[in-house]
What we know:
Blueprint: H1 3-13, H2 28-41, H3 47-61, H4 76-90, H5 92-111, H6 142-150, H7 153-157, H8 161-171, H9 175-180, E1 186-187, E2 192-193, E3 197-199, E4 208-210, H10 214-218, E5 222-223
Antiparallel strand pairs: 1-2, 2-5, 3-4
Helix pairs in contact: 2-3, 2-5, 3-5, 4-5
Amino acid sequence: MSLLHRRRVRALQQQPWRPVDTTTVTTVANLVDRFTERKRQDTDTAQATIGSYDSVAGVITGPDGCGEPTLLEVRPGRIVKWLRSTATSRGAGIAKTARSVLSGASDIAIEDGALNQNPMRMLPKMKRPRPAGAQAIPPGEVPALRTAIATNKLVAERDLTDLLLLLLLATGLRVGEACALRWDEHRPRRRDAHSGRYTRPRARRGHDLTRPTRAAAQSPCQPTP
């Protein structure tokens, strides 16, 4: 932004007869400040959410943020680049919250007639990296694990040694599958077993016992010692 342009922006922002109006020379930082101030006055917004917005607003308007450009200068591609950089340097959660703040700031510009549509809704969704799945224990580490379980006092006090050593470690069953195992599903001669699993529904407390489907029952069984 040139020095002359900066002076024009500052002059328009300081005009007393248009103290909060939004124009094409309004900066992103100005809209972000107005958005966070509006949220502070909103009694329906939780204090934790307000604190999160205030913290991220500081990132947006800071030296490495994207608050300096005006509405005339800002482009979706520039915002996407900044959000990706923020996700790398500060985490996907910060970048996702920043997108929400920028979207709310853009809504203010739409209300004032400076924008026809919210550019933030045109951007690709921010996805949090999902944790990697469970990793198999390397065979070379199994003896040390067996020793650690067999000599653990807490495991012995809770009578979990056989469960951890003989059932989970030997069969590869998950905890929910081991808890759902029934004797009639264990075939000692074939040394295998079918097992359902205990699951915890999100909508309510408690556990549901999920039995295997017919297709699952016809699939290869879990080997047992």
